[in-house]
Amino acid sequence: MNKTNTISAPFSERLIYPLFALSGISGLIYEGTWARYLKLFLGHSSYGQILTLCIYMGGLGIGSFIASRTLKYVKRPLRAYAITEFAIGISGLLYHNLYEFITEWFYNAAWSAQLTTQQAEVAKIVLSVITTTPTAIMLGLTFPWIAAGLMRRHRDDGQSSLPLLYFTNSLGAAGGLLFASYYLIPHLGTQGTLWFAALINITLGVFFVSIDRNLRKIPTEKFAEVLTPKPSPTPLFSNAPGERIWIWVAAITGLTSFVYEVVWIRLLSLMMGSSTHSFDQMISAFIFGIAIGSLVSKKLMRKDVLVFLALAQIFMGFFAICTVYFHTFFFEVMNTANLLFGETSQGYVGWSILKFLVAISWMVPTSFFAGMTMPFITYLASQFTKSEASVGKIYGWNTIGSIVGSVLSGLYLIPLLQLKWSLVSAAIVDVLLGAALLLIWRPQWRRKGLFWALTLAACFPVLLVDFDTYMVTAGVFRGHKEYHREEKVTVYNGRTATISFHESPVHYYVKTNGKPDASIRKDRTQPVEGDELTQAATALIPMGTRNEPYEAAMVGFGSGMSAHYLLADPLLQRLDVVEIEKEMLTLANKFRPINDRAFDDPRVNLYVDDARTFFHTHGKSYDVLVSVPSNPWVSGVSSLFSIEFYQHIQRYLKPGGTMVQWLQLYEFDNELMLHILQALHQSFEHVTLYSIPEEPDIVILASDQPLRQKYIDRFAKTPEIVEEFEKMHRPWWTFGEQNFLATTKSLEPLLKGVPANSEYVPWVDNRAEATRYTISTVGLTYALDSCEMCWPDFLEHENYAPRKAFKNWLKGTQAPDSYLRETVRHQLSLHQEYMSFPDSALLDTNLSDQAQSAITPTGREPSWSKFWRDFRKFMAQLPFDSTRSSVPEYALFKRMIAAQQVPLGISVEFEFLDHLCHERYAEAARMLPALREIFYLMSMDQIFLRNVALAAFMANDTRELRIIFDEAIIRSPYMDNAEKRLIASLLGKDAEAIPFNTPPDYY
Questions:
Q1: DSSP assignment string, 30-82
Q2: Which of 546, 598, 752, 814 could serve as 560's disulfide partner, Cβ 3.0–4.6 Å?
Q3: Quick one: pLDDT at residue 1001?
């Protein structure tokens, strides 16, 4: 025996394994980050996702095959590995700039606009391959190079080194993916993350140059064979298949492993949510199991490896089937977890850790055995060939199998067989593969009848068990859920998502991956409410800005109601609707006949595609482009709220065209909304925000022209639109200018210093899952909506004036609440009578029994505090202008104050408000010292404090306000922090010292 085989490895050799873990970290950082880039270019459709994976995996496979063919010419594989790591690092440093150059060249080139849809797709694939595959090929070279170097040194066909290499590389990959997801990308962005990975590669190159120098020069494979002739086969390998069989086994196990991974990602999305962090946790958990399996395989290498490989294949299939048996347990664990952790930042951390542990528990039993297979297969192949080239071949064919598995499962198996049978079919293949290896090459196993009977008994029940429809579609990742088994549920697993249609006693609604996306009330005799108001607003708010024929496009179909309402406009000539998931369109048919126009109107065209891909390949321009995607925390969706998407989409807007963006306010926060508004603000000259009545959502209009609903009066005249409002049981002005919040120009003091949400620095994608879990709320819109004096009145007075006039006109046309009004009138009468106030305009004292019971009994002094609370509510229903003085109740109370018959605090506050509504801002500002003296301002509500601030700003006299800000506003528990930052910024104070998202008590 050669003496070098018996001595312990020097320190340099022992260092190889932890360093190769770093290579795994960088490799998965590249895969995860490249996926973000390529999906932006190829689209987030099923084809785009699979193409992204194929480009990466294809490069790895090509690299492995190249290594297998060239290893015999390489004298020093570790030196070749070092050079490869250097090259990967340089490529990583250049990738971002190369990607931007190629994609911009494609979108700006005249030739690409002339391509058909299919031709454009081919061109994008070719460009993606040019951008990414060279580096992926180099990544594919790394494992064969380093494996060959160690195999030559140990002369044991990889028995000692292969398992450790698979283990360390996979363990690094599992950790690297989470590190990138939770730290690198949030802090460095995609480009910085690539640079970090490149730094790892360059560092590895430096280390391995030194390691190669320290270790003795290893002979080439050909020379090694002369020094060490092939040993005769041992009994364990005397009856084993040849290399060709092991190539097939490697490809098949790669195929089934990726079928499991794709199916489980879809299943666990229903349990863990479909955020980017959840996807990264799933993949990391799967790879972690592979790492542990690789490590354990080292202990089995001196036994009958073929038997253990066959058993690993059988157990892979069995434990995959077990996820069908025990899925209800895992879903219930996640559901219960929502009761264990509070809706806080700390609770989110605990919930995320538990979520990862659940993913590990689900995936590792199967991926553990999958991790054993590759070391076993590679070792068996190299034992047969006595060639280190088999490492590259096996690795390459395993990669090809993985590509086939991802394509097969994503495009064909899941849509055709659905989730259960896609999973079971792969499990059956694994069990049969393991059985074939044992029965053909280990004949003694043919006599183990009990083992085969138990195997059959363990797998057979899967034919009788299915996934619990109610549990898997409940959305347990969004809080503790009850399983409404009284509902009728239809589930279709499409190529990109699981879509379910639910019919409850009250609503029809549709879910994507367990998250409700659209709902419609079944009782059409009642006013529409909830989600349907949002769907109507996204169509009707932009409709009020147009009075000429126009063409529109819509991103996202949902229930089809937004398209239905938009098609009610006879001015609309064409509507192109782009929906990424075909099954959404299929199940939306179940909303018929409520949404009939969305399917039957000849002006509508429905397309199943990724939005960015569709707009470029169809080459049309639109007057209105409506974007109603899913929630921003859903993986891939946040890119539709990015500056790159908004700037890209302008290519497809006609001059004066309008981009319409729906945005949630629930499960979101001020800072995330401002990231999106900054992206819009930097992309469009005019951006206008509207609230949606009674709903925690907003509609944003963006254009190169100022936008206002100048033509909303046609809603009261156009028969088709009138009919829709009648069906909604809502007045025609429901979505009018009274819902105006602000423009981004008025919010510039808040936007200052806030970076735009970007595809390369994805602020929203990084944090949206946390805000969803903590049920955060965007408080800034309350500051803009719940107001008497409103911020736009100061920040953009001329632009706001016509909108303010509309709001006041609308209030003037509506009588105040009758019950509230009679309560106020009676209390005024009581105070008159009690004080013997001589006024000829004594109000009517007739009062309903309901109102009478709420007022102080006769004979006792009436309550001024109760009166003032009711009177403030009453005033809030009046126009905030000089017309108030003509309201009898208001005029009488004003005379009572003049006669000094009202307590001082109420009198001062009323006079302050009266100055404001009559636009006497200087007089109102002069009252601020009195307000400070009379009231404990820190306890006053946000509307009062807002009025105080605006009075000072409108009067251009902020001396007293600075004192009030330090004493009360900054310390107020009732004012939203974003509004505090706005005031601080306008006062020239340190606004950035105030956090955006500390939730005020009034939420």
A1: HHHHHHHHHHHHH-SSHHHHHHHHHHHHHHHHHHHHHHHHHGGG-S-HHHHHH
A2: 598
A3: 45
By C-alpha distance, which of 653, 658, 714, 662 is closest to 536? Answer: 662
Could you report how far apart the first and last alpha carbons of the chain are, in Å? 77
CA-CA distance, 509 to 523, in Å (whole number)?
13
Which residues on neighbouring strands pair with residue 500, listed in sequence order? 491, 511
Tokens matching residue 43: 């689209």
Closest to 792 in 3D by CA, of 982, 537, 964, 990: 982
**Helix %, strand %, coil % of the chain (to 5):** 65, 10, 25
Nearest to 300 by CA among 289, 291, 309: 309
Yes or no: say if 779 and 1003 are a contact pair by the CB < 8 Å rule. yes
The residue among 813, 727, 735, 720 whose CA lies nearest residue 544 is: 735
DSSP string covering 446-499, please? GG-HHHHHHHHHHHGGGGT----HHHHTS-GGGS-----TTSEEEEEE-SS-EE
Q: How far apart are CA 298 and CA 301, in angstroms?
A: 5
Q: Is 787 left (phi over 0), alpha (psi -120 to 50) or beta?
A: beta
Of 661, 712, 722, 659, nearest to 685 by C-alpha is: 659
Nearest CA among 39, 32, 363, 360 for reference residue 181: 32
Structure-derived torsion over alpha carbons of residues 341, 345, 351, 353, reported in degrees to the nearest 10:
-140
User: Which residue type is seen at 124?
Assistant: K
373 within 8 A of 309, measured Cβ to Cβ: yes
**Shortest CA distance to 664 belongs to which of 640, 633, 698?**
698
Residue 145's CB is within 10 A of a number of other CB atoms, namely 27
Closest to 143 measured CA to CA, from 220, 75, 61: 61
Amino acid at 432: L
Please give the full DSSP string across 293-310, using - where no structure is assigned.
Answer: HHHHHGGGTTS-HHHHHH
Alpha helix positions (H), 595-637? 597-600, 611-618
Q: Which residues pair with 797 in a beta bridge?
A: none
Question: Which amino acid is residue 358, in one-letter code?
Answer: V
| Structure tokens that stand for 611 in this block | 């939005």
All structural domains of the chain, each given as residue ranges with its CATH number in brackets, are 8-229 (1.20.1250), 236-467 (1.20.1250), 469-512 (no CATH), 525-785 (3.40.50.150), 803-993 (no CATH)
Task: Report the half-sphere exposure of 803 (CA within 13 A, side-chain side).
Answer: 25
Which two tokens mark 504?
């409850």
Pair of tokens at residue 612:
């960015």
Question: What per-residue confidence (pLDDT) applies to 45?
Answer: 57
Question: How many CB atoms are closer than 10 A to CB 17?
Answer: 16
Please identify every stretch of the chain with a pLDDT value under 70, giving residue numbers as ranges. Answer: 1-12, 44-49, 156-158, 216-238, 833-861, 998-1003
Tally of CB atoms within 10 A around 304: 14
Beta-sheet pairing, 515-521 with 550-555: unpaired
pLDDT of residue 835: 59
The strand pairing partners of 515, in sequence order, are 512
Cα–Cα distance, 756 to 748 (Å, whole number): 13
In whole angstroms, give the CA distance from residue 321 to residue 465: 10
Element (H, E) at 578: strand 572-579
545 closest CA partner among 803, 797, 780, 781:
803
Q: What is the pLDDT of residue 479?
A: 86
Structure tokens at 245: 């069989």
What are the residues whose beta carbons fall under 8 Å from the beta carbon of 899, sequence distance 6 or more? Answer: 837
Q: What is the 3-state secondary structure (H, E, C) of 397-457?
A: HHHHHHHHHHHHHHHHHHHHHHHHHHHHHHHHHHHHHHHHHHHHHCHHHHHCHHHHHHHHH
Instruction: Judge contact between 943 and 975, C-beta under 8 A.
Output: no
The pLDDT score that the predictor gives to residue 236 is: 52
DSSP letter (8 states) at residue 664: E
273: region left, alpha or beta (phi > 0 left; psi from -120 to 50 alpha): left
Q: Output phi, psi for 154, to 5 deg.
A: -90, -20
H/E segment holding residue 518? strand 515-521
